[in-house]
Amino acid sequence: MGAGAFGERTLANKRELAGEATGPLKGVRVLDMTSVIFGAYATQMLGDLGADVIKVEFPGGRRGGGGDIMRWAGHPPEGAPDDLGPIYMTINRNKRSVMLDLREEAAARSLKRLIKTCDVFAASVRYEGLGRLGLDYPSVKALRPDIVYAHGAGYGSEGPYAGEPAYDDLIQSASGLADLLNRTDGNPAPRLIPTLVADKVSGLFMAQAITAALYHRQKTGEGQFVEIPMLECVTSFTLAEHFYGHVYDPPTGPWAYTRVANPERKPFPTQDGYIGLLPYTDQQWDQFFAAAGWAETFGKDPRFSDYRTRARHVRELYGLVEEVTVTRTTREWLDLLKPLHIPVTRMNRLDELQADPHLAAVGLFERYEHPAAGAYVSLRPPVKYSATPANIRRHPPRLGEHTAEILAELEDGP
Which residue, of 346, 373, 398, is where some domain finishes? Predict the structure, then answer.
């Protein structure tokens, strides 16, 4: 079903950039030596919250254009610069880009001067490589004693995988995420979830860790080294529910939360589309099957009499739901179930999201005019702060766009 189900994609007139930071991290300066998804996603969140994020990038070698490799992924519009790829555009706003070739002595000196002005040093370069550049924690701390030094690593430094390269595919494979889909459909082959979930989850951990360390520094004046290891973060994320029967010693049940690792857990088909549907309480299940005309059958079935027995027979239960949902249209189900407060929603395809009435009403998608790339769509910061709202003040920068500006600030500084 295309976007026509909601009407054509519509966006308000182009938004103007905010003039100044209003978020809770206003006044915080972040030196950002991250790239790709994990670190760049984290530092954009800090920038949205008001931080001055300075993205340090490096010239390319003979086989690349330089800078963050995500600059070169995907296709900018015809006539736009090649260094503004779509994924880069989505996770690099509210940053300034400075390009420094750290093989040059003058550039290395400039970076050290820059570090002295920063509250946070965030990096996702392997720690061994940072050490070769003279940017390990002791060296950076010597330049700025109260620095919050956040290192996004693939694996914790105390384990045997420390220092090994890590990408989303590897961390999904190592963390148990790749062992989930095969538990739902009988296909024994492990598979990766088709989103960069390991990178993005780790980025969320990184942003949270930096803000917590900044809070500690505000209270005590003390900076610290913070390690954000992807494997540990994503394994913790995965096992929040999927540890399940192995929480206890000895285990009391299987790995993987049975309601979730269930091939019948999916959007349910209607006569003209799909709905997300989850009756949860005893009353909601009774009301759902009563609305479907199955109250007599459902009410007498001991497999579904209460939460515990339903959990043991959840696959059969969801199979019954699918038999019911195909008897009405999506609109009919929404009109029937929402007044009963039964959790239900229309399923969106990706190409329908921008026309979703709720997302349109809250203004999640915003249209801007990039001075080099032209019109583009950005997702506004989703979290609302009543006193210190996040905002968008800078377009995603060109490679090295702010080098002269930032170096001039260093000349004018102390």
Answer: 346
